[in-house]
Amino acid sequence: MSLRHCTYYLLLLLLLTGCSGDTTDNLAKWRITLNHEDKIPYGTYLAYESLKYYFKGAKVEVLSQGFKYTNMDSKMKYPAGRSLMVLEGLRFYVSEKEWDDLKQFIRDGNEVIIFSSWIDKKIQEELKVYKWRAGDETNMLYIDKEDFDHKNILKLTNAPGKTYGYEGRSIRGYFEFTYKKDTTEEDKKSSNENSTAESDTVTEDSAEESDYTEEDNSYEIAITPDTLGKAGEQPNFIRYSIGDGHLTLHAAPLTLTNYFLLQDGNENYLTGIWQTLPSNITQVYWQDFYARNTESSSLAILWQYPATRLALILALIAILVYIFFEGKRKQRVIPIIPPVRNESVSFVETVGRLYYNKRNHANLADKMVQQFLEWVRSHYFLNTNMLNDTFINQLTIKSGQNEIVVKWLVSTIHEIKLGGANIDDDYLYKLYTVLQKFYKKEIVQISKLSEVKT
User: Fold this and answer.
1) CA–CA separation, 94 vs 378, rounded Å?
2) Distance between CA atoms of 159 and 120, rounded to whole angstroms?
3) Rounded to an integer, what distance in angstroms lies between the CA atom of residue 390 and that of residue 397?
4) 389-399 vs 403-418: helix axis angle to the nearest 10?
5) Which of 167, 281, 297, 366 has the smallest CB count inside 10 Å?
6) Which tens digits make up the pLDDT trace of 250-279?
7) Burial class of residue 96 in the structure, from the number of CB atoms within 10 Å of its CB (0-12 exposed, 13-18 middle, 19+ buried)
8) Across-strand partners of 239?
9) Measuring CA to CA, how many Å separate 235 from each of 47, 61, 238, 251, 347?
10) What tens digit of pLDDT does each residue of 103-118 get?
11) How far is CA 133 from CA 290, 315, 318, 402, in A?
12) CB 440 within 8 A of CB 373
């Protein structure tokens, strides 16, 4: 599928989807994203897809929005062939180290082309260039008819006589080749608003008369760039030679958007841009970032200054020391808690001792019998209302005691309940001993039953 067929297909898709949805959805579709995956008007899906048609055989790789040029691996730094890096967004900022690495990448024979409205000040100063009308793309359509007219604003040097444009957001950005360091932003803005074709803007001819020369630059950057395209009469598509490669700047990033390329004939404008690049490209890197300000929110910008680096190291050491010494668990010594006593057993023992000391053996024996019968009911689930042969047989089976022992115990219980027993210390001791054997589930020896001791 050619770019033209792809363009027609996407145009049909936009027309169909544009007829449905509410106002909110339609406004969302017209937002600027410059993302290569977006098929909305101000996405860059078509431009990204065009790479494989114009650089046939080249491998295309997308760099993440947060990719830092200081992280280029050896494969990127020393490619087998020639590489092209396409960087596009509204704001392009780099750190000093990133800019150095990017120039080294170019110096090794590779190509970098930047489509951006805002260009980092350090780049402008070094290239002796200033970007005008920066940020106009983010405004809605202009009221001024002249600013609104973008239909035939763009020209390419390699396609003389042809013009390109559209009815959309601003693509009128351009470059001035003499960058004045002492010019304030207010002066630039005022000059930008009042500039006309007859103003003292320096063109590429006057740039040759600039005080700056190639010998002034230690990076072998050709200060006089080649002008490859214009917006009106001002250069907006320029190229610098750096070592064996080239750095290309384009002042109108919206020329890569789907909405621009869908206008009749504008695909030829993109074709003209790609045709200015070498034909032997084997690797293409694409990065869309919208607004790139790589180290504004990271610690890297602080780490590069010795004072802040030392402060960060000391703060880190202090935190580690605090965690080591103060992070230990602080707790009082846990006291040894004695096991909870069975107060009910203690109560029974106290009451029993009271009865025994008062020599009220009959009453104490009766209490012992009642406690035993309750224990039999709760442990063996036997009915103790009738202490007959059936009860004796069931208790024998469940307790595991000899039947003779059980009969002796039942007979003793009857004596106590009927009051016919002469309960003295020895009698009370025998009863107590037998009952304890039952509680502990120990066997009572029949041979010593008369003594009830084992």
Assistant:
1) 86
2) 30
3) 11
4) 130
5) 297
6) 999 999 999 999 998 999 999 999 999 998
7) exposed
8) 226, 248
9) 22, 30, 7, 9, 107
10) 999 999 999 999 999 9
11) 17, 44, 49, 113
12) no
Per-residue pLDDT, 302: 64
Note whether 8 and 263 are within 8 A (CB): no
CA 183 – CA 71 distance, rounded (Å): 34
Q: Which residue has the tokens 């304030």?
A: 184
CA distance readout (Å), 353 to 11, 18, 245, 345, 359: 106, 100, 110, 12, 10
* Cα four-point dihedral sign 51, 57, 63, 68: negative
Full-prediction pTM beyond 0.70?
no
The predicted-structure confidence for 233-242, as pLDDT tens digits, reads as follows 999 999 999 9
Residue with tokens 């003292």, as numbered in its chain: 200
C-alpha 74/C-alpha 91 separation (Å) is 27
Residue type at 110 in one-letter notation:
N
CB 116 within 8 A of CB 92: yes
Yes or no: say if 441 and 400 are a contact pair by the CB < 8 Å rule.
Answer: yes
